[in-house]
Amino acid sequence: MRRLRMGMIGGGPEAFIGPVHRFAAEMDREIELVAGVFSSDAGRSAAAGESYRIDPARAYPSLDAMFAGESAREDGIDFVSIVTPNHNHLPSARAALVAGLPVITDKPLTATLAEAQELAGVVAAAGLPFGVTYTYSGYPLAREARARIAAGEIGTIRKVVVEYPQGWLAGEAVGKQAEWRVDPAKAGLGGCIGDIGVHAFQLAEFVTGLRVTEMLADLGAVVPGRLLDDDCSILLRFNNGARGVLLASQIEVGELNGLRIRAYGDKGGIVWKQEVPNTLTIHSLDGRTQIVHAGGSQLGPDAASRTRTPAGHPEGYLEAFANLYRDFAALVRGEAAPLLPGIADGVRGMTFIDTAVSASRAKAGWVKLEG
After folding, report:
1. Which tens digits make up the pLDDT trace of 14-52?
2. Dihedral (C-alpha) 88, 94, 96, 101: value to the nearest 10 degrees?
């Protein structure tokens, strides 16, 4: 079985997420990066292609050039990975799908809900594989938590708390990665809510198997002069009657990437922390606490099949991304990948962002989350 050939859109010089996607995609030797439009600037695209060690002729100056050039090759790309700022997601994905190429894109799906809905129509018309890299659903123990909750291990869920604190935007937004995230023209409708809040939201629904039906959102732009939110507090109600809290912030000084989810049922509770990703804590009503380790023999099939090393050998962010790319490769090959987030998850995330921003601005109190 040959390796799938990937074309990347974005990931130019000084980019953080482009190399992450490249490393992750190639980790399991099922995919190789062979081409890309790494920047809207032809010179920067060429420079990035050199850094990725691809054929210089395949570091293209534009999307049209890449699709034309690759379609003329016997060894042309099999799919496209989009790793640009949010405002480029829709035009890039639409162009790739129209060219007949499957797409995997970074989150959030698009810059606005209207764009997400438009893209959903394009995906439906194309009938091609489509994935969204909600990274944390690729962690083995996040998948193990999902499986154990689905099996009833903690009973009926009553409370969900998901937190995503960061501190890197507590001051002035300096540097390429910070600047576009606080620019509405590039980030879209949401700031913190679209950058990390949507991760927390997707993880809460992914792990618990529940859906948020109502929310009360309080979003703020705390840093003076900032145009997009950088601090978010949201109360949640789920479709089984459970209550929840979602906290996401990028102004909590000293916090790094502290994503954590806690779910409590009538038989126990379950806790997973992204910064300590290789352990899952399960509390029982009788007072017992169980620590489940990544790589251990007690893992279910979803988690076990996505763990590469024995227990005690840490795996983390890159491996979680790699799991999503392995899922996507299976999808492209015509196999099943039920845990890979797709277009519906992307639209769901944009609906959450749009609802949270609109409700907070209007001070609307409790509102329904449609979709």
Report:
1. 889 999 999 999 999 999 999 999 999 999 999 999 999
2. 140
